[in-house]
Amino acid sequence: MNTSTTAPILPPPLAAPAPPAVHDSGADTAPGVIVIDSCTTLGATLVVRLSGEIDHYSATPLRALLASAADDGYTGLVLDTSRVTFCDSGFLAVLRWWPRRGRRLRLANRSPAVRRLLDVAASGGRPPARTGAPAAAATS
Question: First CA to last CA across the chain, in angstroms?
């Protein structure tokens, strides 16, 4: 009597992992990406060139850099924002924090996104009035 056993050529199928549960709140929760292109010093002034998007989450590295600079005695800050493509109140919070305790702030090369944010902030949160010719009234 011959009782040889052979294993099947293909293993039994493995149970497929369950797909991850995704909760869509409808809001974009992905943090923006901010890049500190360069950071140099001129005496007691820190010169930082930024690019990318600045929101509440992505401003964290910038806040940490500036807190460290303030602790090290830097009193001036020049931010080159020419390559900033988006910014919101997270960036405003950074801008409002730095001038405390007599520190100086200068924004150089403001991008359109930065100008728009500053215009809205200066107007008390109301979007600035549009410039241009008013639409002609329709006649009946």
Answer: 105
> Taking the domains of the chain in order of start, what are their residue ranges?
34-122
Q: Which fold has domain 34-122?
A: Transcription Regulator spoIIAA (3.30.750)
Q: Sign of the CA dihedral 114, 117, 121, 122?
A: positive
Print the SS3 string covering the chain: CCCCCCCCCCCCCCCCCCCCCCCCCCCCCCCCCEEEEEEEEECCEEEEEEEEEECCCCCHHHHHHHHHHHHCCCCEEEEEEEEEEEECHHHHHHHHHCCHHHCEEEEECCCHHHHHHHHHHHCCCCCCCCCCCCCCCCCC
Q: What confidence tens digit (pLDDT) does each residue in 85-132 have?
A: 999 999 999 999 999 889 999 999 999 999 999 999 998 866 656 655
Q: How far apart are CA 97 and CA 26, in angstroms?
A: 31
Question: What is this structure's pTM?
Answer: 0.66
Residues 6+ apart with CB under 8 A from 45: 74, 75, 76, 77, 78, 104
